[in-house]
Amino acid sequence: MAPILSVRGLRKVYDNGFEALKGVDLDVQPGEILALLGPNGAGKTTLISCACGLSTPTAGTITVGGYDIRRDWRAARSLVGLVPQEITLESFEKVKNTVAFSRGLWGKPRDDAAVERVLRRLSLWDKAEGNAITLSGGMKRRVLIAKALAHEPRLLFLDEPTAGVDVELRRDMWRVVDELRRDGVTIILTTHYIEEAEAIADRVAVINKGRILLVEDKATLMRRMGRKVLRIDLQAPLATIPERLGRFGLALGQDGRQLSYEYDTKAERTGIATLLAALAEEGIAVADLDTEASSLEEIFVDLVARDGSGPAAEPGEAA
């Protein structure tokens, strides 16, 4: 299946000489949710701006649905919706008119039924006659999504869509995103909430200093790069870890009743059986065992640290 978005050799150099993107290659498949993760200044917003036609690349190509974003710009951009970080709404315009206007900007004919469908999907229909100024921050974010969906795009960019939104509304937005994906909309999401990517993304792309570090299926990535921690609850507390157990790199809990053992899931042998045997030899009785896998956040932090953190902030990029 041909990718809905294809990026090849994308470079962006600003007038001051700052190179925000350094030969980015990326393919996004129809109907998937891709989480684009990276620290501040990594190039996320610049990449999105180029793909949406808001910023002109210095070099490289971008196609959307097979259309070149520069040569066939009208056809390419008609397939793209963007929900920006900033909340930019006409304060005293009715919600339904705001959405209908966005539809008209893309040359779509007036369709009150289509506007109603979008507003109902985002739980905004009861706010349709209200002005944007009367809405909460979370509702305003929903209106931004409605505006982006008004012209029925196939590719939706969500740039920090839940910034400043409370936990309940954030989870509600995850539900909406999942429904859009089921309807065939491809979604590229940037977020500072790593649990957001872990909850809803199919694949993860990590960008740092203008380069893509990896693009991988989320579950595969967590299996390949994740580590696990074995939590060992003890029947009796320990004051210190016996010297003969030092080779296992154990950590002792504050109350002395729990040992933690970190192991590599990719290793041929985890060492757990050897550890349990060594505990028995030391006369340490085990009450319970539990394992905890690395989170996507831990994997992300490790990847960026290996690449070298602290990229310079690029012009116009807040995240």
What does the model show?
There is one protein chain. This protein is an alpha/beta fold. Helix content is 32%, strand content 26%. It has helices at 44-51, 73-78, 95-105, 112-121, 137-149, 167-182, 194-200, 218-225, 272-281, 296-307, and strands spanning 5-13, 19-28, 33-37, 59-64, 67-68, 80-83, 155-159, 186-190, 203-208, 211-217, 227-234, 251-252, 258-264, 286-293. Helix 3 (95-105) crosses helix 4 (112-121) and helix 3 (95-105) runs parallel beside helix 5. The longest helix is centred in the middle third of the chain and has 16 residues, at 167-182.
| Side-by-side strand order of the widest sheet | 6-7-8-3-9-10
User: H/E element string?
Assistant: EEEHEEHEHHHEHEHEEHEEEHEH
Tell me roughly what share of residues is in helical segments: 25-40%
Distance between the termini: 31 Å
Taken as a percent bin, the fraction of beta residues is 25-35%
CATH superfamily of the domain at 5-79 and 153-222 and 300-307: P-loop containing nucleotide triphosphate hydrolases
Identify the overall geometry: elongated
Name the assembly state.
single chain
CATH topology of the domain at 5-79 and 153-222 and 300-307: Rossmann fold
The total strand number stands at 14
The gyration radius over C-alpha positions equals 24 Å
Mean pLDDT value: 86
Largest sheet: 6 strands, mixed
Q: Which CATH C-level class of the domain at 5-79 and 153-222 and 300-307 is it?
A: Alpha Beta
**Name of the CATH architecture of the domain at 5-79 and 153-222 and 300-307:** 3-Layer(aba) Sandwich
Low-confidence stretches: 310-319
